[in-house]
Specification:
The chain is of the alpha+beta class. It has helices spanning about 15-45, 50-55, 85-90, 115-125, 140, 170-175, 180-190, 200-210, 215-220, 225-235; strands at about 60-75, 90-95, 95, 110-115, 130-135, 135, 145-160, 240-245, 250-255, 265-270, 280-285. The model has no long low-confidence stretch (mean pLDDT about 85).
Length: about 290
């Protein structure tokens, strides 16, 4: 499905007291509508679930990693390959589900790395090239800051490459017949919002995956973003990672699912010398459980 085109929020200081109660009621209605609307699409996907997994898995290919980068806050520098942070924190990452609502949306961990340090830093700090963090520009953060970065090598056996549009062609063909019932269109009109219709093209599907504001859906409406749903299906298919273009630099980034290293020859490891305090420098089929 597509997403809301704008954030739906209001500063209470701008409302007269009598309007706050009315706004809260409308907002509660919007959340209920979004949850029910999401449930409709989830049900439609469930009927195609095995086919959707196969459509992604058939596109997955081996991928070699050489001199990639992992950036972590300095407090986590002794466990740089741990993916626990991606599920402990709300709402998770672009392609994995964190602490949104575990009773409805099971969590699964993702380890995020990038092909260069600049991209890794900008992704960690969510910085565009012209933005700054604590007075440091994106360029300055490449050489300064309270973080640690590690060089990563590895070999994965099943990677879905979203830098190529055709990787989602079969997936889109399967969901392209989903039609939003008139009921949801009328309900959206009643609460004066645009309906979130099914995506109408492969380009529109990709656009929803790489939205800058992908956190809008989980943060305001307690449902996963489209990219997280795709990640969930890829993860369930046994895919070990998703390669995708950074929205910050257009360089390559990769989310890795350590739990899918079971019964696989896949591995990633820290390259070069590191502090003796670093715990577990390699993820493979014998160690993956230590990182999730």
């Amino acid at each position: 499905m597509s997403q809301y085109d704008v954030s739906i929020f209001c500063l209470f200081d701008t409302l007269p007291p009598r309007a706050i109660k009315k706004w809260l009621k409308l907002h509660a209605g919007l959340i209920d509508y979004t949850s029910e609307h999401f449930g409709f699409f989830a049900h439609q996907r469930s009927k195609l679930y095995e086919q959707l997994k196969s459509a992604l898995l058939i596109q997955a290919m081996p991928y070699e990693l050489r001199n990639w980068r992992r950036v972590v806050d300095h407090q986590f520098s002794n466990t740089p390959l741990s993916a626990l942070g991606s599920i402990k924190h709300f709402p998770g990452g672009r392609f994995n589900i964190g602490d949104i609502d575990p009773s409805r949306f099971p969590q699964f961990a993702g380890l995020y790395i990038a092909e260069d340090t600049s991209t890794a830093l900008r992704e960690v700090f969510s910085l565009d090239p012209d933005q700054s963090n604590n007075g440091l520009s994106s360029a300055e953060l490449n050489v300064a800051g309270n973080f640690s970065h590690f060089i990563i090598d590895g070999s994965l056996t099943t990677v879905l490459d979203l830098t190529k549009q055709e990787s989602l062609s079969n997936f889109f063909d399967l969901i392209s017949d989903i039609v939003l019932p008139t009921y949801y269109i009328k309900r959206a009109a009643k609460i004066k919002i645009p309906p979130m219709r099914p995506v109408r093209s492969l380009k529109e599907l990709r656009d929803t995956l790489f939205r800058e504001d992908w956190r809008l859906m989980p943060m305001q409406f307690d449902v996963p973003a489209n990219s997280q749903v795709l990640g969930q299906i890829a993860y369930a298919a046994g895919i070990e990672g998703i390669l995708f273009p950074s929205v910050k630099t257009d360089k390559k980034t990769l989310v890795i699912y350590p739990n899918n290293f079971n019964d696989s020859d896949a591995y990633i490891e820290i390259k070069g010398n590191v502090s003796a305090s670093v715990i577990n420098r390699r993820i493979d089929s014998s160690t993956f459980k230590e990182f999730i």
